Amino acid sequence: MRITFLGTGTSQGVPVIACQCQVCQSSDERDKRLRSSILIEYNQHTLVVDTGPDFRYQMLREKVMHLDAVLMTHSHKDHIAGLDDVRAFNYQQHSSISIYGTEALHEALRREFYYAFTEVKYPGAPRLDLEVIKAGVPLPLFGKEIMPIEVLHYKMPVLGFRIADFAYITDAKFISDESRKLLEGVRVLVVNALQKESHISHLTLDEAIEFAYDIRADKTYFTHIGHRMGLHEDVSRELPENMFLAYDRLKLDIG
Q1: Is residue 29 in a domain?
Q2: pTM for this predicted structure
Q3: What is the pLDDT of residue 255?
Q4: Which of 12, 58, 174, 179 falls 20 to 30 Å from 153 in CA-CA distance?
Q5: Residue 40 is assigned to a structural domain of this protein
Q6: Could you tell me if residue 164 is inside a domain?
Q7: Is residue 251 part of a domain?
Q8: What is the residue-wise DSSP string for the chain?
């Protein structure tokens, strides 16, 4: 299974518009972060987790030629705003795309992309099959079992996903003991770490490190990173062994 980080930034991305801080002005490509998303490839199938505002460019940059499904974490705009662009795959593949998420997520999609769900559709509108999934209930998909895992983004339920030895969690501030049990035995963990300062709805770097120690994965990668975190090179030197800042286009091969 191959994981590609399509984006590792927070809702504004990095650089932030009009910001003159050292991170936003950095020439290090690892400090340039599109909105958070990953590409998952296994058994000759391709999935993405979330379709943020940068989805179109992310697909072009990685030369993705086929898309089988989308897993959605939650309905905030930095995670769904690019969904319309799956219509390019609809056209090329002559098929609809399955969108896996909660009932609440699907309600938001019907509201935000109303034209895709009207009885009489405009020609060329995206063709989306909404498939309901629930936290703690495994989803068999393309020969593997995907486990949705609920976390809280302030008071908003958000889904993370575990596939075999890999887990991806974004936009989390609180992870219950029940959800932590679903992560037992994970070898590669990805979790959000927004910044070093306290935040109401995201784990800080220290909180994410503490969580990683609790899960005891072989390797942990931090994502959904804001410009206030600091320079990638500087922060990387501060991290514990086997913990890393993810960056856009990083690829992980997981057996």
Answers
A1: yes
A2: 0.97
A3: 82
A4: 58
A5: yes
A6: yes
A7: no
A8: -EEEEEE-B-TT-BSPTT--STTTT---GGG-BPBSEEEEEETTEEEEE---TTHHHHHHHTT-----EEE-----HHHHTTGGGGHHHHHHHTS-EEEEE-HHHHHHHHHHTGGGSSSSPPTT---EEEEE--TTS-EEETTEEEEEEEEEETTEEEEEEEETTEEEE-S-SB--HHHHHTTTT-SEEEEE---SS--SSS--HHHHHHHHHHHT-SEEEEESB-GGG--HHHHHHHSPTTEEE--TT-EEE--
